[in-house]
């Protein structure tokens, strides 16, 4: 997708690149100027120290032999390669000896260190310049300006220490500043080169990295438009790079998968309600029609109304179970959570169902030792366990041996497992064991038993709400339903 420059600058990648480039450039400029200033001060300090040493040496020469010895030493040192600046002038500032041909005006008027760098020209440079450019030299002569000032303005820069000798003659010892100036020039060129490379690098980074990021954003936007158009099977692209775009796409894909699952569950609920609740509603209508079709005693009408109320209560329970399952599967519930002792919940449920098991001729056993604490809702856990124990009692009566239901609680690693096992015929087929946890699913052999097919569905939803799972395992014989809870970390 081609973007204009204003549109490009509105992108996050371009803004970040420009911001980082500006920040780095400011830091680089400040660092370079700081290092340049520090290096210049260090070089100046070294220069002054060198000049002081030279002055001490010349002072000893003057003390040893007076002005003749001093002049001889100055001439000797001024002829050496890379020599400092040496100058001896009379009281009026006329240069007598040394390697300096001219100075800018005012340098020799004050004693001590020069307040600022001054311009000068070494001995012999003026003649060489006139040989190279005779026309310019003729013009300078005709202008009437002093030779010292003209040549000084075109010379080098230096700092110096000016001293007045006891006979009022002037001595100057200085050092050329060409080396610090060359250092500054090198630093400036390096800075310009670094800024140019940073600018080029920023453009390359934007071109290769920013454009790739924009392409990925465009692909995500295109996939989002398809999903918003109603295609919930679409997914955002994942390149496998493991970056933030992949993590965002994976999270959104998980969200879309969750939405698709909820939509499918809603569709199944609607289909199950239309199919499975049609029979009890038809039975209610037929009973009412049969009661009104002829003359009956008052007791007959009363019995018909009582049966209708009982059937209506069962329908209300079914609807409440459906609503509870939907809320739990959607991750929303008004139920609060707290510390729950599973051992106490098991004892309460077993105590509640002992009369039911005894009436059905089923032995109800428990195996619970110690305390098993989880984070959850005591009422929901009790309801799930009650549904499972009720199913185990109902479907263990067809056992060839003595019907037995066993409730056990044990710790397995970081999980607490609550299992309800019976020795009935069980569910041998793996596909049937996976299918019975769906809403309104009842196997053929269970059609003779009362129920709506929502008990295990509700138990599964309750376990999902508690970040656990519900497993149906073959008992050999019978069936074992295992509720696995994550154990509290602060145990």
TrEMBL record:
Query: Which stretches of sequence are listed as region Disordered?
Result: 130-153
| Subcellular location as annotated | Membrane
Q: Which InterPro entries match?
A: HAMP_dom, HATPase_C_sf, HATPase_dom, His_kinase_dom, HisK_dim/P_dom, HisK_dim/P_sf, Sig_transdc_His_kin-like_C, TCS_sensor_his_kinase
Glycoprotein among keywords: no
Which residues are in the HAMP domain?
211-264
> Which UniProt key words apply to this protein?
Kinase, Membrane, Phosphoprotein, Transferase, Transmembrane, Transmembrane helix, Two-component regulatory system
Ranges where the Histidine kinase domain occurs: 272-489
Which SUPFAM superfamilies does UniProt cross-reference here? ATPase domain of HSP90 chaperone/DNA topoisomerase II/histidine kinase, HAMP domain-like, Homodimeric domain of signal transducing histidine kinase
CDD domains given for it?
Answer: HAMP (cd06225), HATPase (cd00075), HisKA (cd00082)
One GO MF term attached to the UniProt entry = kinase activity
Q: What is its EC number?
A: 2.7.13.3
Task: Give the transmembrane region(s).
Answer: 12-34, 190-209
| Catalytic activity field | ATP + protein L-histidine = ADP + protein N-phospho-L-histidine
Put simply, this protein is called: histidine kinase
This protein's species is Mesorhizobium robiniae
